[in-house]
Amino acid sequence: MPWLVEGSPDALAAEAHERWRQGASALSTLLGWLARRGPLLVWIDDAQWGDRDSAQLLREVLRARPAPPMLLVLTSRDEEGPSSTFPEEIFLDTHCDVERIELSVLNPEETTTLARALLDIGSSPSQEQTRTIESIVVESAGVPFLAGEMARLARSHRDLAPSSEPLRWPRVGDVVHHRLQLVAGLSRDLLEIVAVAGRPMPVDLTCDLLAPRGAARPLLRGLVNHSLVRRSRRSSGDVIEVYHDRIRETLLSEMPGDIKQRGIAVWRSTIPGKRRSMRRFW
Predict the structure, then answer these.
(1) What residues have CB less than 8 Å from 68, skipping those under 6 apart?
(2) Are 203 and 237 in contact (CB under 8 A)?
């Protein structure tokens, strides 16, 4: 590409800025066109991972005249750390109406209502149904994801089990085992690497341990979608860790040997040239 080699740094920077401006204008035009066809809702999940460049792009769209008429919803998790200012940076100098809604865990009454709805239980539950609901309330600790998964597993067991078989009260471990059954092969190896490490690991290093660069990225996305691992951003870069301690405990319990033997087994499944990089994590 001769133009890239011969162009001056200032000219290249100016061209890059103009391309960025054109991209922002095109995005604004597209959103405006969609909004004219009907009410427009734009939802950005896991906003805690957003970066400054993305915030600047969205801010440019919102500052356009006229700005696309839309409802922009951003959802984020506080436990990922307060370092990300992505949501706040989007709305700087935009004159948009911003409302922050903080969601906490469900209280026992709300968890009961959710479980009864998912189990399709009426206003007069049987003794067995009441014990099932109580188990879900206690085990889920108000986390909607766990309560929902436990209710679905309990309903599946109820629908498939013989009528003579007593109902087994759902536990968080049941949810974990069900999730672990969804992964195998390199996905399982990737999950075990993170579990044995026992602390956040750099995403690039973790993916490169098992396959050439880029090949493990789809596997990582699958583990995130199954809520087995979670990805977050630190000052040193993106890291990955097991989604919940209960998942890690269950996974380690299914691996033979003690923690040292498990680490050796996972170590042998990695690419030899990458093993040196893992020493500071194990």
Answers:
(1) 28, 31, 32, 34, 35, 40, 61
(2) yes
6 shares its domain with 30? yes
**Residues 221 and 144 occupy one common structural domain:** no
**Domain assignment present for 100:** no
Residue 133 lies in a domain: yes
Give the N- to C-terminal CA distance of the chain in Å, as an integer. 45
Q: How far is CA 2 from CA 6, 7, 8, 278, in A?
A: 6, 8, 12, 41
Residues 226 and 269 placed together within one structural domain of the fold: yes
Q: Say if residue 82's pLDDT is above 50.
A: no
Residues 256-270, mean pLDDT to the nearest whole number: 56
The long-range contacts involving 268-274, CB below 8 angstroms and separated by at least 24 positions, are 269/189, 269/210, 270/193, 270/209, 270/210, 271/208, 271/209, 271/210, 271/211, 274/205, 274/208, 274/209
Task: Tell me the per-residue pLDDT of 123-135, one tens digit each, with 9 for 90 and over.
Answer: 788 888 888 889 8
Q: Is the residue at 196 inside a domain?
A: yes
Count of beta carbons in the 10 Å neighbourhood of residue 143: 16
- CA angle (91 as vertex; 85, 92 as ends), nearest 5: 85
The stretch 200-207 carries a mean pLDDT of 81
Give the model confidence (pLDDT) of 9-31 as tens digits: 655 566 787 888 888 899 999 99
Residues 149-196 have pLDDT tens digits of: 888 888 876 654 444 455 556 777 777 777 777 787 778 888 888 888
Q: Are 175 and 140 in contact (CB under 8 A)?
A: no
Which bin fits 235, alpha (ψ -120 to 50), beta or left (φ > 0)?
alpha
pLDDT digits (tens, 9 = 90+) for 212-239: 656 777 888 888 888 888 887 766 778 8
Task: Report the pLDDT value the prediction gives residue 160, as an integer from 0 to 100.
Answer: 44
Contact (Cβ atoms closer than 8 angstroms) between residue 245 and residue 228: no
Can you give the residue range of the structural domain that contains 258? 179-278
